[in-house]
Amino acid sequence: MHLPAITSKTQILGVIGSPIEHSVSPVMHNAAIEDLGIDFRYFAFHVPVGRLEEAIKGVRALGFAGINVTIPHKENVIGFLDEMDDTARRIGACNTIKNDDGFLTGRNTDGEGAIQAIRAAGWKLERNNVVVIGAGGAARAITYFLAKEVSRIVIMDIDKKRAKKLAAELEKVSRTTVIDSPVNDECLDREIAEADLLINATPMGMFPNVDQTPLPKKCLHEELHVFDIVYNPLETKLIQDAKEAGCATLGGIDMLVNQGEIAFEWWTGRVPNRELMKEAAIQWLGL
After folding, report:
1. 133 backbone dihedrals φ, ψ, rounded to 5°
2. 253 and 281 in contact (C-beta within 8 Å)?
3. Long-range contacts, 230-234 (Cβ 8 Å, 24+)
């Protein structure tokens, strides 16, 4: 089976972000489109920070069926939408938009996708002590769901105000103990030594900066579970270090596929082949 020819009736999907050249989403979604034989296409669009409003106006005016939103637009895009679902509103970040005749609705599939990936790995969340590095859109989505299940969350971000703001918001909507912490060697050593689960919710280590890691290897210990939401490369430096330290590890590819599957069904009304999407993504990454 091949993708149908692009015509005036072809419905356009896509992802916006900056940078965007690392994105696996077009390969993943177009594989599902081809498999189902539906008249859609999915593209990646580079949208710098200062052009976000124009880009969303373009989505509306050109009649795109829907788009994903990635770094650094997940929070700021909210101001340009007509409506958000309850979860996205509470999270304060949007990664998926649907266009219904010019009416743009936002939702967030990141948190649900992340929790599905953690559960599928067989990791238990109940009563866990979790350290999350990052306080941006992805971190907001993931911690919103985590706060319903774990006993303690530590939010660490180089932007102290952003970390403090997220921690305060989470404490208002959950019974979980949530604290913010600066990112320095002393705090990393102390907090990770007590943690059951570490989540990297930053782009640190993402292609092309594959030698970067959000924390020193010496902080890691064999009782720790390490989840890096970065999916390109499949095995980041953090994941490599964690494996060497004896940690259980989970990369970002399953979270990516999970959130993509949710978005695809919302846009098209069709259930995609999840395993085909994952296979296409992994193949594109060269493994």
Report:
1. -95, 120
2. yes
3. 230/200, 230/203, 230/204, 230/205, 230/206, 231/24, 231/255, 231/256, 231/281, 231/285, 232/22, 232/23, 232/24, 232/206, 232/207, 232/285, 233/205, 233/207, 233/285, 234/282, 234/285, 234/287
Give 3-state DSSP helix, strand, coil % of the chain, rounded to 5. Answer: 40, 20, 40
- What is the domain count for the chain? 2
Beta strands 129-133; 152-156: pairing state = parallel
Catalytic residues: 74
pLDDT band for 1, please (50, 70, 90 cuts).
low
Compute the average pLDDT of residues 177-189: 92
Does residue 5 lie in a domain region?
no
CB atoms within 10 A of CB 274: 16
The residue range of the domain holding 180 is: 111-251
pTM score of the predicted model: 0.92
Percent of the chain with pLDDT over 90: 90
Judged by DSSP in three states, 100 sits in: strand
Q: What is the mean pLDDT of residues 196-219?
A: 95
Residue 6 lies in a domain: no
197/146 same-domain check: yes
68-93 confidence digits (pLDDT tens): 999 999 999 999 999 999 999 989 99
